[in-house]
């Protein structure tokens, strides 16, 4: 039986320059007739603007000529990063996300990893020429939509807290309006969109979300069937449909299925996954952002570091950027807490983002962002941490 490459089922590149809208049918992976034993690096499907011999040996002269042709026709995607919308994070990582990079985000449970990741995906999709592919092993697409409505009620980066919606507020509005419909009262809206559109509290959020709704692609992934292979197939199809203007978000790494392979242990499984996600970034020429859970020892630690992430040392080796999130109140030096406990208590709503690995820049940079957890949003206008933190590593300038 001939082994079928999953590039065999990829559609032809779109004929027009304007990317066609991806559909679930167009990105769903085709079943393989013969499972692969280990993720490999197949030839990249042809996408608009991609060199035809992207994975063939080339001389330096050929590489220079191809790069020159791209610059001449105005294709500068290799030189212009994609901002996350979080400042000063973008400044520390060279302006934003870059193609072929794997970015890892780690931290303890409940620290706001999904909130930050979904908000960054929203910021990417809000750009008229960009698409975001968000795979969640934890939440349904509907729940993510509800989170986005709460986020949009704050309208970051303006953060209008007085207009903010909580999840329970959103549910109450929907249930109350449907109850009016069932009871035959005037004003009872029938559909969800009508309810959200006609309510003064939800209408602005719905309008903001509509601006990028066609460019944010959501998937409720399954730990049983959403494998590395299927992620790569779907990403390849989306690259074709979007002209390669795609960023992939995975929530979260340890939940990615590796079937039919049988890893020896947790470390072997994580190695396979992180290598596979890095291969997606490299072979399909897209940024890949993935959440990583902390291990048991990390959850016991006062301050989580990169080596506390659950899995193997491959997380450090394969990633281009690694960001660790910690609650500011928990990692502040005791000197600050004892000196002004009232101010220290206010730091409970602040999260410190530490760049612990940065392949193209300086690492061990601490910045802080205020979290509005009930609204599933961060204030993206952050600042460098001024206070002394525990477990600080001194980096000489």
What is this structure's SSE topology?
Blueprint (H helix, E strand, L loop, with lengths): L23 H4 L32 H13 L16 H4 L9 E6 L5 H13 L5 E6 L4 H14 L12 H16 L9 H7 L4 H8 L5 E5 L7 H15 L3 E6 L14 H19 L3 E6 L2 H5 L13 H5 L2 E7 H4 L2 H6 L1 H6 L3 E9 L6 E8 L4 E2 L4 E2 L13
Parallel strand pairs: 1-5, 1-6, 2-3, 2-4, 4-5
Antiparallel strand pairs: 6-7, 7-8, 8-9, 8-10
Helix pairs in contact: 4-5, 5-8, 7-8, 9-10
CATH class of the domain at 92-165 and 201-384: Alpha Beta
Please tally the β strands and state the result: 10
The mean pLDDT is: 83
Q: What would you give as the CATH superfamily of the domain at 92-165 and 201-384?
A: P-loop containing nucleotide triphosphate hydrolases
Which term fits the overall shape? globular
- Distance between the first and last residues' Cα: 60 Å
Low-confidence stretches: 1-17, 32-53, 393-397
Radius of gyration: 22 Å
What name is given to the CATH topology of the domain at 92-165 and 201-384? Rossmann fold
**Helix-strand topology string:** HHHEHEHHHHEHEHEHHEHHHEEEE
**Shape-level CATH architecture of the domain at 92-165 and 201-384:** 3-Layer(aba) Sandwich
Structural class: alpha/beta
**SS summary, helix count:** 15
Largest sheet data: 10 strands, mixed
Percent range for β-strand residues: 5-15%
> How helix-rich are the residues, as a percent range?
25-40%
Describe the structure in your own words:
There is one protein chain. With 397 residues, the protein is an alpha/beta fold. The chain has a domain at 92-165 and 201-384: P-loop containing nucleotide triphosphate hydrolases (Rossmann fold). 35% of the residues lie in helices and 14% in strands. Strands 1, 2, 3, 4, 5, 6, 7, 8, 9 and 10 form a 10-stranded mixed beta sheet that branches. Helix 4 packs across helix 5 and helix 5 (141-154) packs across helix 8 (203-210). It is globular. It starts with 23 loop residues before the first helix and ends in a 13-residue tail after the last strand. The relative contact order is 0.17.
């Amino acid at each position: 039986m001939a082994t079928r490459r999953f590039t065999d089922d990829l559609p032809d590149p779109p004929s027009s320059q304007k990317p066609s809208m991806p559909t679930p049918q167009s990105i769903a992976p085709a079943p393989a007739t013969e499972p692969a034993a280990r993720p490999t690096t197949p030839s990249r499907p042809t996408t608009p603007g991609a060199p035809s011999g992207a994975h063939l040996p080339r001389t330096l002269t050929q590489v220079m000529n191809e790069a020159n042709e791209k610059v001449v026709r105005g294709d500068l995607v290799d030189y212009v990063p994609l901002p996350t919308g979080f400042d000063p994070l973008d400044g520390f990582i060279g302006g934003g996300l870059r193609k072929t990079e794997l970015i890892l985000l780690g931290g303890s449970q409940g620290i706001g990893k999904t909130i930050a990741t979904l908000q960054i995906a929203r910021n990417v999709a809000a750009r008229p020429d960009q698409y975001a592919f968000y795979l969640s092993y934890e939440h349904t697409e509907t729940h993510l939509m509800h989170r986005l409505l709460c986020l949009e009620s704050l309208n970051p980066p303006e953060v209008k807290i007085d207009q903010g919606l909580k999840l329970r507020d959103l549910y109450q509005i929907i249930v109350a309006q449907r109850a009016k419909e069932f009871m035959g009262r005037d004003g009872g809206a029938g559909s969800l969109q009508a309810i959200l559109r006609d309510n003064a509290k939800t209408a602005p959020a719905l309008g903001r979300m509509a601006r990028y709704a066609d460019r944010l692609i959501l998937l409720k992934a399954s730990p049983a069937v959403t494998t590395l292979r299927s992620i790569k197939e779907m990403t390849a199809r989306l690259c074709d449909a979007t002209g390669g203007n795609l960023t992939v978000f995975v929530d979260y790494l340890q939940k990615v299925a590796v079937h039919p392979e049988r890893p020896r242990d947790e470390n072997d499984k994580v190695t396979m996954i992180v290598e596979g996600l890095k291969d997606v970034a490299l072979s399909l020429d897209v940024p890949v952002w993935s959440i990583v859970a902390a291990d048991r020892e990390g959850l016991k630690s006062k301050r989580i570091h990169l080596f506390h992430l659950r899995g193997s040392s491959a997380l450090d080796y394969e990633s281009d950027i690694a960001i660790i999130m910690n609650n500011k109140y928990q990692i502040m030096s005791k000197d600050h807490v004892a000196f002004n406990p009232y101010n220290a208590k206010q730091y409970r709503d602040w999260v410190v983002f530490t760049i612990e690995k940065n392949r193209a820049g300086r690492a061990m940079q601490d910045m802080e962002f205020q979290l509005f957890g009930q609204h599933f949003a961060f204030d993206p206008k952050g600042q460098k941490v001024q206070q002394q933190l525990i477990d600080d590593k001194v980096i000489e300038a």
